[in-house]
Amino acid sequence: FLEQTCRFLFQLLYEVEECETKMYVLQAFSLVIERVGPEIQPHASSLIQYLPELWQQSADHNLLQCAIATTLKYLVQALAALSVSVHPLVIPIIQYGTNLQQEAHVYLLEDSLELWHVTLICSPHLSGELLHIFANMSELLELGTENLRVCLKIIESYVLLGAAQLMQLYGDVLVPSLSSLLRNVKPEAIAMIMQVVDSVLLSLPEDGPTLLKPLLMTVFQNMLQDEDYPPVINTYLSVWAQLLLQNANFFSGFLSELATQLQQQDTQLFNSYLDLWIDKVQCCMHASFLLHGCRTRCLAGHNEPTATKEVDSLSPLFIANKRNQWGDRTVCCHYGSVQRCVARSTPM
Q1: Which one of 188, 211, 309, 321 counts the least CB within 10 Å of its CB?
Q2: Is the pTM of this model over 0.85?
Q3: Hey, CA dihedral for 46, 49, 52, 54, is it positive or negative?
Q4: In this predicted model, what pLDDT tens digit does every residue of 141-174 receive, in sequence order?
Q5: CB crowding 111-144: b at 16 or more within 10 Å, else e
Q6: How many CB atoms within 10 Å of residue 98?
């Protein structure tokens, strides 16, 4: 009955005159599309052709515009890669609904962000039009509202589609915005920001660290302050583990530059970092423990004698974790002539 249902719904949508009635019909259409998914593709042409006209008619009816955006979200999901055909309609609606200079954003913002996210998920490539509307993201991040979660998902989707293009056009704005957010958001949001950072580093192993340097400096300083919740520190350490595995040469130069800014010696800053890492590594989730274990090899290659001694002292810890996730452990750390042994009985 799908073909008949779609035909009757479209006729009703086309013939009714009141915007409220059209809104209810669109809600029914959205429900059908959500339930049948890709099976709607052979029956969606009439709706796709009519929606641009309906959008023009809804200029003074914000709730109807919200219904159109929701219908497009489900339609894009159902069309998947074929949704590129509706980008000429979808992208201007996203740009309009996420533009904080438009009064309509009060009504359209949430639906437009969801449509934006779905459009990126279903896009086979990052087009110039999609890159253009990312210009709205800077102001959206400044809001710091309940929409921050979907904004960060949108940013990550852009990174996965075209990290080089994104960072080339918007890196100078995006990196400071994310760095500022780290100081003012909850741990859950920090974890999502670090997921974006990790995606950039994976996509751009050579250039990514340099592009993200201002943000990485904020992360490093926050990490050394050790004032965040353990899961946040774990997230910071995991990202640094990923960075050291991919681009260990970046670490030395980064450490020297940051030490100069903080008016410290390189060795002093490095020992502070290594001290924190040894103290927190046993709190890391088991899934990321091997990543930290591999990272010790990179630390051992650092041109600092302390690093090799510290890494060698951690070998029994990783062996113990491999054998048993529970039990008392002692980690002996050597800083020059100072030896410190710390007993641990924390589950991995």
Answers
A1: 188
A2: no
A3: negative
A4: 988 777 899 999 999 999 999 999 999 999 999 9
A5: bbbbbbbbbbbbbeebeeebbebbebbeebbeee
A6: 25
